[in-house]
Amino acid sequence: MTTTSTVPTVPYDEALQEFEPVIGLETHVELGTASKMFCGCDTAFGAEPNTHTCPVCLGLPGALPVVNATAIESTIRIGLALHCDIASWCRFARKNYFYPDMPKNFQTSQYDEPLCTDGYLDVVVAGETVRIPIERVHLEEDTGKSLHVGGATGRIHGADHSLVDYNRAGIPLVEIVTKPVTGTGAMPAEVAKAYVAELRDVLRGLGVSDVKMEQGSLRCDVNVSLNRPGEEWGTRSETKNVNSLRSVERAVRSEVERQAHRLRNGERIVQETRHFHEDTGMSTSGRSKEEATDYRYFPEPDLVPIAPDPAWVAELKAALPEAPSVRRRKLVAELGLSDNDSAAMVNAGVLDVVLATVEAGASAAEARNWWLGHLAQKANERGTEAVELPVTPEQVARVIALVGEGTLTAGLARQVLDGVLAGEGEPDEVVAARGLAVVSDEGALTTAVDEAIAADPDAAEKVRAGKVAAAGALVGKVMKATRGQADASVVRRLVLERLGVTEG
Amino acid sequence: MTDLTRLTAAETAAAVKDRSVSAVEVAQAHLDRIAAVDDRVHAFLHVDADGALAQAKRVDDGELTGPLAGVPLALKDILTQEGIPTTAGSKILEGWRPPYDATVTARLKAAGVVILGKTNMDEFAMGSSTEHSAYGPTHNPWDLDRIPGGSGGGSSAALASYQAPLAIGTDTGGSIRQPASVTGTVGVKPTYGGVSRYGLIAFSSSLDQAGPCARTVLDAALLHEVIAGHDARDSTSIDAPVPPVVEAALSRDVRGLRIGVVKELSGEGYEPGVQARFDEAVEVLRGLGATVTEVSCPHFVYALPAYYLIAPSEASSNLARFDSVRYGLRVGDDGERSLEEVMALTRAQGFGPEVKRRIILGTYALSSGYYDAYYGQAQKVRTLITRDFQAAWEKVDVLVAPTAPTVAFPLGAKLADPLAMYRQDVASIPANLYGGPAASFPAGLSEGLPVGLQVMAPTLRDDLLYRVGGALELALPPAVPPLAWETA
Question: CB-CB: which of A104, A156, A303 is closest to B321?
Answer without folding.
Answer: A104
